[in-house]
Amino acid sequence: MVERPQKPKRREEYVQALENRLSRIESLVQASGILDEGVGAVVPERRQPQSEDPFSLPPISIDSAHAGFSVDIHSVMADAELPGPMGPNRPGKMNSEFWRHCIRKANRRPDWINDIIEGVVSRGLGLADDPLQAPYSWSRYTQLPPMEDLLALVGDYFEMCNVVVPLYHQDTFIFQLYENLSSGSKPSAGWWASLNTVLALAHICRSRSTFFPQELEKKAWQYMKGALAIQAEQPSLDFDVTSVQALVGMALFFQITSFNSQMPSMMLATAIRIAQGIGLHMNSEDPNISAVEKEQRRRVFWIAYIFDRELSLRTGRPPVQDDDNMCLDLPQDNPPDKVGYLGDTHIFKAKCTLARIQGRVYKQLYADQAWKLSREDIFAAIGNLNQELEDWRLALPEELRPGHALPDLPQPYDSHLLVTHFCYWYCLGLINRRHAICTRITGGRPHEAVPKSISPVPFSSNVTDVARNIVELLRVHPPTARGTRWYTLYYCAAALVSLFGTIIANPGETATVPADLDRIRIVLRFLALICDDDNRDARALFDVCLRLEQMAVAVIEKAHQGESGATPEAERREQREELDRQVRKGLQWEGTNRFFSPLDI
Predict the structure, then answer these.
(1) Going by C-beta distance under 8 Å and a sequence separation of 6 or more, which residues neighbour residue 269?
(2) Percentage helix, strand, coil, to 5, in the chain?
(3) At what angle do helices 536-564 and 482-505 cross, to 10 degrees?
(4) Using one digit for the tens of pLDDT, what is the confidence trace for 380-432?
(5) Of 298, 305, 360, which Cα lies nearest the Cα of 330?
(6) Among residues 512, 516, 476, 477, which one has the least CA distance to residue 500?
């Protein structure tokens, strides 16, 4: 027997059923004594003269079963203090207030029933309030300086920061600054966060030219706290390019003012997700976007990309942006504003290329899948990446290449080029570290496992030599570049760890051990300068590095005592193993970590 499908109820029947059910509920509630005594009284209908307004509505009347709940729309609007009936172009917030007032005016049910009906109507009509769209006055987080000082700070930012990290287009930013501060409109959250970030970075840039940088840094943190307060209330800000710029600028601020990598990592992750949402990671074909805006969109994304790759290598965490999910041209050569250039060299574009190599180093050598590759594939990847990095170095002018003495450059180009050299040497060290791991695991480099087209890694490019080159960069570090101290602190600590490992492995090597111990002490003096700022993270790192130096000295002394006393080889080996166990116990370091960093100690 086949059942015949039932015909769906007509709309009128469905509405009638709902009305009957609501009437029964009202009868039960009234019988329970919850309702007031006068709830069933009929409200006399108020007559209004007919209006010529095209949006005027007749009085809303319910059927006879609900005659007690009739309402005049004009009286409701008058009581709600609304200017007139809501037309199709009225703001959603006014519509929301209007309908809520109608619900409560048109009946005299208890508040708990009104709340239920109000929620249903709001969800059905899309009138629910969005807390992120509230008309906040973001200026309450910022005490702006006088206009003259404000313009001077913005000018310093573009001259000393934006010229090497082109996060903003100067003409566009200045135009928005005058537009937002002169008009009575309320600027967006993203723009206010950007303004706070620009002022904070401007104070950091000014700190290089004063003998009392602490006062300027305090002012910088005040503006950054304003930006953080805005971002805390509206995490993604306005989901536009200005929001991405603000978040990337905040990430830059934290990288040059603290050693903690958590805050810049979170800021960058949010910025890149917003950038992906608005299409910054793809080439724009929109004819409505000007060439200047397209170029600025590219610059903003590449800056976020550079920071993302640097943080990925420093922390051993995967980057946020995947190279397989982006299609974006490199920044334009010879732009009209010449931003990102160091002389005739497009240093900003060179940093973008280096960031792409850094991403491949992590993906091909240190990602989880990379540890599952065969040794033939690993050695091939090491050779290819080493060659890519060398080609990048040779593409730079000779006076700007890593391995050469840094030229005498004005600020901020001196510190910017110094940071680029730090990134290069650290990236090269990671490539050679992976080679050393494979060599140690396989018991020597198997020549038959390496393709003939790949040349061996040069002897001068081993991990220890890279660490020595990093320490040598500290000798030319500008003493007033406080921001560069924090940015390069990790690389210096990593170099110290590598030198410590070399001394532990060969404590009796009289040709290199004393010089390497001196390099360790150079890093310690550099860390001591930063610890004067009473930073908890820096002090913790300094304590670890100081312990490493003390252990290295103890190992060297024991090695000399063993040689003078003609200790048998077996006893010497046992002493070395015991010392190695003490070192691991003192550092509380688990050797199973594939991506060793000073932060793991």
Answers:
(1) 320
(2) 65, 0, 35
(3) 30
(4) 999 999 999 999 999 999 999 999 989 989 988 999 999 999 999 999 999 99
(5) 298
(6) 516
Decide if 455 is inside a domain.
yes
Q: What are the φ and ψ backbone dihedral angles of 177, each rounded to 5 degrees?
A: -60, -50
Q: Are 490 and 526 within one domain?
A: yes
Counting as low any pLDDT under 70, the low residues of the chain are: 1-11, 14, 28-142, 184-185, 440-461, 532-534, 562-601
Q: What is the pLDDT of residues 511-527, one digit of tens each?
A: 889 999 999 999 999 98
Q: Are residues 455 and 531 in the same domain?
A: yes
Is residue 21 domain-resident? no
Same domain for 317 and 233: yes
85 and 160 fall within a common domain? no
Q: What is the pLDDT of residue 71?
A: 43
Lookup: tokens for 555: 């190992």
Residues 123 and 146 in one domain: no
Can you give 52-96 as a three-state secondary structure string? Answer: CCCCCCCCECCCHHHHHHCECHHHHHHHCCCCCCCCCCCCHHHHH
Residues 429 and 555 in one domain: yes
Domain count, the chain: 3
Are 180 and 249 found together in one domain? yes
- 3-class state of residue 326 by DSSP: coil
Does a structural domain hold residue 5? no
Give me the domain span that covers residue 487.
Answer: 347-600
**Contact of 243 with 190, CB cutoff 8 Å:** yes
The string of DSSP codes covering 159-173 is HHTTTTS--S-HHHH
Coil vs helix vs strand at 133 = helix
**pTM for the whole structure:** 0.73
CA atoms of 47 and 393, how far apart (whole Å):
86
C-alpha–C-alpha distance, residues 474 and 485, integer Å: 10
State the alpha helices, DSSP H only, in 454-507.
Answer: 463-474, 482-505
Q: Could you say which DSSP state residue 327 is in?
A: B
- For the purposes of burial, counting CB atoms within 10 Å of the CB of 42, is it exposed (0-12), middle (13-18) or buried (19 or more)? exposed
Say if residue 172 is in the same domain as residue 109: no
Q: Specify whether the backbone of 443 is left (phi greater than 0), alpha (psi in -120 to 50) or beta.
A: left
**Of the candidates 80, 95, 129, which is a domain's last residue?**
129
